[in-house]
């Protein structure tokens, strides 16, 4: 499968058309941004880690019955994926308080939540991805109730699978962000990366951060953290 024209270039990925109208190629970059693009940088090797880790996670989820956009890994940085219409929501799951949740609700970072929780944000950089509730989503016609139910059920299922997997490699899955898309026939599938860019991953014992917070918060050792995650998930 060959790359045709560039369709879209985002902050961390490029998306290309292919000969097949139903398939796109995603090309993962090393570029890193935070705070709505205010902070810019590069994390050497990040594209490779994010591509390979996302593909592994998608395959694991597919085996468990969660449909995803993954079709085939083409190279270290490139993957063939299904074309979808993205549902313009960031779906965030949390097991432990951190980041915006800690700030918004005044809960100390690291507090284990009584049960996993879910929130939706509107995917809109200009508006800084505001939090949005189910009624807003229906009123704005961003998704139907049935689509929201499917997305929520998949999300909690994904959380359960990923939490157990990361625990088995000494990593606490604090929170993460998912995006879903729709195939032409309306089927909802998982349609974005799952990587240290989009997950908070803490070492189970030391609580050392092994994710993009090292970049966001200038903690140093960013590349090393991404490589450590890749090593622990069995990719090298
Ligand atoms: N997240 C993401 N993209 C975003 C916002 C958040 O991937 O645009 C991820 C982030 O890496 C974390 C989770 O979603 O794992 C929850 O992020 P939070 O709402 O706490 O926002 P932050 O503190 O990162 O601004």
UniProtKB/TrEMBL annotation:
Keywords: ATP-binding, Ligase, Nucleotide-binding, Purine biosynthesis
EC number: 6.3.2.6
Pathway(s): Purine metabolism; IMP biosynthesis via de novo pathway; 5-amino-1-(5-phospho-D-ribosyl)imidazole-4-carboxamide from 5-amino-1-(5-phospho-D-ribosyl)imidazole-4-carboxylate: step 1/2
Reaction equation(s) it catalyzes: 5-amino-1-(5-phospho-D-ribosyl)imidazole-4-carboxylate + L-aspartate + ATP = (2S)-2-[5-amino-1-(5-phospho-beta-D-ribosyl)imidazole-4-carboxamido]succinate + ADP + phosphate + 2 H(+)
GO molecular function annotation: ATP binding; phosphoribosylaminoimidazolesuccinocarboxamide synthase activity
Any Gene Ontology biological process: cobalamin biosynthetic process
Enzyme class: ligase
Gene3D superfamilies in UniProt: ATP-grasp fold, B domain (3.30.470.20), Phosphorylase Kinase, domain 1 (3.30.200.20)
All residue ranges annotated as the SAICAR synthetase/ADE2 N-terminal domain in the record: 6-232
Family classification: Belongs to the SAICAR synthetase family.
Protein name, entry field: Phosphoribosylaminoimidazole-succinocarboxamide synthase
Species of provenance: Solibaculum mannosilyticum
